[in-house]
Write a structure and sequence with these properties.
The protein is 72% helix and 1% strand. It is built from 15 helices and two strands. It has a two-stranded antiparallel sheet. Helix 3 runs parallel beside helix 5.
């Protein structure tokens, strides 16, 4: 139970926020966007944070899921739910096909390959105008309905996205604590050492790459039905960079860090609007200061600070990185 205490706290927060602040813009509108970004960051963190595979093209899978669902519902009259499943299946298939050749690469070469994948998908979305609507995008995407319950208000979308976020976090936490999660961490530490321990690194990398793509695809489908309009601009290279920033800012290899990074990078620009012309400059300065003082990321950094506080009243600290190994000596 203690292992999932953070999960239960997040669930309680998602339930309580609309009760405490009904009709609040930041809760019913901005929080929905933050929830979608958090789902994407959690999925990217599985690939980047835990498996150590850099990806600069994660927005491509977000876009494939969104357009897959949007095209099937607007062009062919599908029900949204089968369309979401079909979009995820298409995304998973594409991810599986490109995973093996791309994941043979490492470091900067892998980053460049995933960047190229993202650019190719974005160009296809722009050029295939008859199917995707081209640069003008696709509109009139139908709303979701479940057993006659239409998701037709901001509050209902808050509930749907909140539930999806909880499922994504629950899935990530269980994977990380499983045999597969240990294989991912071993892969991140040393691919050669992981192979020596009997881990099939090719299968492990392919599996986490496809899983991250599937989660991003479902988030993209939800985004399409929530917005009722999509265009290629929402799935560009710049959004992939933004997702990477969320993961790094929150803390690599930390599911809660990915959630925290997504929430901060979604809410911060909204809160800085009051500074008008200085908004971007202040935003950049805040990010820079966060990385200077908490280089390991916000969530791990705050955890380390909290662990150091009681030790400062006793013996002088014996380490400089706040590792968990000090617990035993305390």
């Amino acid at each position: 139970m203690r292992r999932l205490s953070g999960f239960y706290s997040l669930a309680a927060l998602i339930i309580l926020l609309p009760l405490l602040f009904p009709d609040n813009y930041f809760v019913t509108v901005v929080a929905v966007t933050a929830g979608l970004n958090a789902i994407l960051a959690v999925s990217l963190n599985l690939l980047m944070g835990y498996a150590g595979q850099i990806s600069l093209g994660h927005a491509a899978f977000f876009g494939i899921g969104a357009y897959g669902s949007a095209i099937l519902t607007t062009r062919y009259g599908w029900n949204p739910w089968p369309a979401i499943v079909a979009g995820a299946a298409l995304t998973g298939f594409i991810a599986f096909i490109v995973a093996r050749p791309i994941l043979r690469l490492k470091g900067h070469y892998l980053a460049m390959a995933t960047l190229g994948l993202g650019i190719i998908v974005n160009i296809v979305l722009v050029q295939a105008g008859e199917l995707t609507g081209g640069p003008d995008g696709l509109g009139d995407i139908p709303m979701l309905t479940l057993f006659g319950w239409a998701v037709d208000s901001d509050l209902r979308w808050y509930m749907v996205i909140g539930t999806a976020l909880l499922l994504a976090v629950w899935l990530a936490l269980n994977i990380i604590d499983s045999r597969s999660g240990r294989a991912l961490r071993a892969l991140h530490g040393s691919e050669v050492a992981a192979e020596m321990m009997g881990i099939n690194t090719t299968t492990t990398k392919t599996g986490v790459f496809v899983l991250a793509a599937l989660i991003a695809s479902v988030a993209g489908s939800l985004f399409a039905h929530q917005q009722a309009f999509i265009s290629p601009d929402s799935f560009s290279f710049f959004f992939s960079i933004e997702l990477v920033t969320m993961v790094v800012l929150g803390g690599m290899a930390s599911t809660w860090g990915a959630v925290l990074g997504a929430i901060i990078l979604t809410f911060l620009p909204e809160l800085l609007v009051v500074f008008e012309d200085y908004e971007v400059m202040i935003f950049g300065a805040i990010l820079m200061l966060m990385m200077i003082f908490l280089p390991q990321g916000l969530f791990p950094g705050l955890q380390a600070l909290l662990r150091h506080r009681p030790k400062s009243r006793g013996k002088s600290a014996t380490t400089d990185d706040g590792t968990e190994g000090n617990h035993g000596a305390a």
